[in-house]
Here is the input.
Amino acid sequence: MIDLLVAGGGPAGLATAIHGALAGLEVVVLEPRPTPIDKACGEGLMPGAVRRFEELGVAVTGRPFHGIGYVDGVTGLRAEGLFRRGPGRGCRRTDLQAALADRAAGLGVRVLARRVGEVRQDGRRVWAAGLTARYLVAADGLHSPVRRGLGLAVPAAAGRAAARYGLRRHYAVEPWSDLVEVHWARGAEAYVTPLAADRIGVAVLTSEQAPFDLQLARFPLLAARLPPPAPGGGAGVRGAGPLRQRARTRVAGRVLFVGDAAGYVDALTGEGLTLAVSAAGELVRCVRAGRPQEYERAWRELSRGYRVLTSSLLWARRRTPLAGRIVPLAARMPRVFTGAVNLLAR
Here is the structure.
């Protein structure tokens, strides 16, 4: 019988599959999309994520970056925090997913071009996509069909802050910094990630739904460094959202959730992939020990720092008097800012 049936062939699902295969489990991945799979993503891997992927035998390509810079999108005031334990890596999402898929295939993981569909389970096994397995791992993304199908999605509460969205575009531009720059403007942030000697990625996070070029106009200093958009304006833009997604639990019988499917706060701190690959290892450890219910506590412990820091920064972000002070405070307190950057880099 299949030990782990993984729904989703993105980084979280493939990291789980690799962890499982290295632990001696039989793993099958369900992914109807062909490799490589792209999505809206800042594409900056923090040093902790780079180390964890390399521990799985996955070589992360791309361009190193050595810290995070906060930049006022209008005045140009900046604060910089450098990593203490090695660089992060700007890596195209398609390159990362392809490298993970190659590693999984080399370990004998089968990938089937199927959708999960209905999920059924009893005390000993789970059925999905015409297959039977000991456990199903839902790694099917931000708007997880498995989470929704099992009634585990938590609806957004009335009166909550406006939903946030992400947009990403690549530019054939030589990187001007060896940091990931986060440009702050009223109501939006723009992340500039060096990806190669002749390419950068620009990702915008915002609560206002508007085309990429209108969002970019909030950052005049950044926009001035970029070439004009191609005819049609929307060419090459990918989007995602709403970003905040809540799940009632990470363990529902023999179904376990990992990656964005397990719940997501925001992309503001760039920790999503670090958490995903770390949680994948904990999930496999709990399954191998025959104590899958312990994964809920493990996930909460792993994600606590991410959830608290991201929620706190969002809270300040949404209050106009505080939002305008984020970059000036970071610039005035460089040791504190560098300390925070290195907490995220672990």
